[in-house]
Amino acid sequence: MPAEPTATPAPVQPTATPAPTATPTPTATPGITATAKASTIYTKGKTSTTITVEKTGVTGKAKFTSSNKKVATVTSKGVVKAKKAGKTTITVKVGNYTKKVVIQVKKPSLKLAKSSATIKKGKTVKIKATATPSGKVTYKSSNKKVATVTAKGVVKGKKKGTATITVTSNGVSKKFKVKVK
Fold it and tell me: Does the global pTM surpass 0.70?
């Protein structure tokens, strides 16, 4: 019996490694963002804020304008300064790109937890005051022979009578009446 011919295997061809394709780097859409350090400022106390501008693919200097200069003005560097209570829109423009930031201007306020107290001679009471915006609070007695007050608002009764403690912050004052028994 004749031998059957055997098939010779074809030589193995190495498979080609595909060339890596470059991944395109995403390009950011050109534009600007504008944000205020604080969206509320006050006519006394914290009277200014700064607008920060970030540019993406945009060149040029930012220009700032206030929609209501009677409420707040804005400098060429983006510093907004309060004038009177109200609302204004600061427009930021860089080239053809524009963003708007709303700024609220408020009058400062001062609130006392109580408006009066009765204490005995030698005793104390603390005046609880809340100032908006937060700031230094001062206290002054109308009659130091009847009642004294510390820089922290602690009132001490000295002798029988009445005294008024004037509490002040950011140009706003409130009265606290003290009766000493």
Answer: yes
